[in-house]
Amino acid sequence: QVQLVESGGGLVQAGGSLRLSCAASGRTVSSITVAWFRQAPGKEREFVGTIWNSGSRLYADPVKGRFTISRDNAKNAVYLQMNSLKPEDTAVYYCAARRISESQYNSWGQGTQVTVSS
Question: Can you tell me the mean pLDDT for 59-77?
Fold first, then answer.
């Protein structure tokens, strides 16, 4: 089982930037797929992006070109760099992980709040 802890959320003005961190334990981030999700009040959880064990990345259309996922194998952590933030990016952000052999994300962090003011 992978344990995940997010950090880095906060309040930022529209157009600003934040970097979220997802610290992993139990498995190396280079051996698993890690994804970021978000959930805004009253809305369903939404996929943001993912980084596969290979290092390839995929982003949801609403964040493409503004958000970047990176990985630091030495720190066993995954990051979500968020630039040009918009009020509609306001949500609780979660990182999740799954093994290569798994089809679902079975490990989730506790979430971190991101609030973007207009």
Answer: 98
Task: Read off the pLDDT band of 1 (50, 70, 90).
Answer: confident
Mind listing the pLDDT tens digit for each residue in 30-44? 999 999 999 999 999
Q: 12, 18 in Cβ contact below 8 A?
A: yes
Q: Of 25, 48, 61, which is closest to residue 94 (Cα–Cα)?
A: 48
Which residue do the tokens 């995929």 mark? Answer: 58
| Cα(40)–Cα(49) distance, integer angstroms | 16
Residue 24 contacts residue 14 (beta carbons within 8 Å): no
Q: Are 6 and 102 in contact (CB under 8 A)?
A: no
- In DSSP notation, 63-79 reads GTTTEEEEEETTTTEEE
What is the distance between the alpha carbons of residues 66 and 11, in angstroms, rounded to a whole number? Answer: 17
The beta strand positions in the chain, using DSSP E, are 3-7, 10-13, 18-25, 32-39, 46-51, 57-59, 67-72, 77-82, 91-99, 107-108, 112-117
Between CA 43 and CA 53, with CA 47 as vertex, the angle to 5 degrees is 155
